[in-house]
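Annual report, structural modelling task.

Input specification for the adenosine-5'-diphosphate complex:
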Amino acid sequence: MSTVIQVEHLCKVYGDTVAADDISFEVEEGEIFGIVGPNGAGKTTTVESLIGLRRPDKGTIRVLGLDPTQDEDALQQRIGIQLQEAALPNLIKVWEALDLFASFYMRAVDWRPLLDQWGLSEKQNARVGQLSGGQKRRLFIALALVNDPEVVFLDELTTGLDPQARRSSWGLLRSIRDQGKTVVLVTHFMDEAEELCARVMIIDHGRIVALDTPKALIQQVRAESQVSFTAPPDFDPSSLKTLPGVSRVTEERNKVSVFGEGALLAHVATALAQQDLAPGDLRSVQATLEDVFLALTGREIRS
Ligand code: ADP
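The model returned the following structure:
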């Protein structure tokens, strides 16, 4: 596998704000690489430096072997960038937008199959202003693919979409990856990053706080398993402390959480059954990337 993006010691300062503070990372060919962090973390600064829209104060960047500050035009031919919401006039028709964008590139694909692939065939004569949020987003992705790019940069792919449209966008994103393209996905949705990305870089205040596979990040902050249930009145949680593998038991209001390792769920279920208890909500609680962010920064991502 080869490296398609290489960033070394990227720094960018705006007045008193350090937007990118010594950021270094690599993206491998064919992966979906996530850049996540709260608003103001430095995601846009980082990505726009990669595509030649911002000039870093310090650091070296190579995308497909090209330096975005020197070879912006050559780079634009080989990458795809998802437009921001306001970037297309409302009166332009869907097919006209695709045709126009195709004309910008030396290596443009036939855009008609893209209409089909992205579920826009019936809308090809509709004006952009008449599209639903989901259709517009699909059009923006189709436009980003019109030059058959090797690397695609997508920003806040599913913001404003309903849960079903989000899920279908995830499928479409995987299909881009399955065509062998490398995807850089900027998002503040941790579930999206966890679901889609081979590796995730978490940034906060312009610094990388973690970079690994979602699984490794989650294991790093919570190696233990957790089982929880709602306790009946008079339940004594200390009865669970001596079970095999249990490290601690907490109780908050009437919700009991048991932490530890091994076959935790089975041991807890058996112990409860011996007391004639079978709480309907007994379950194993999986840690998520949200927990990782909280553990690493002390904050919820949305705060
Ligand atoms: P994100 O995309 O994660 O929300 P940004 O990269 O847009 O973060 O911003 C990082 C920080 O840099 C923020 O504090 C933001 O206010 C500041 N910043 C970004 N662009 C500019 C700019 N052009 N001028 C001044 N400050 C900026």
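The chain has a mean pLDDT of 91.
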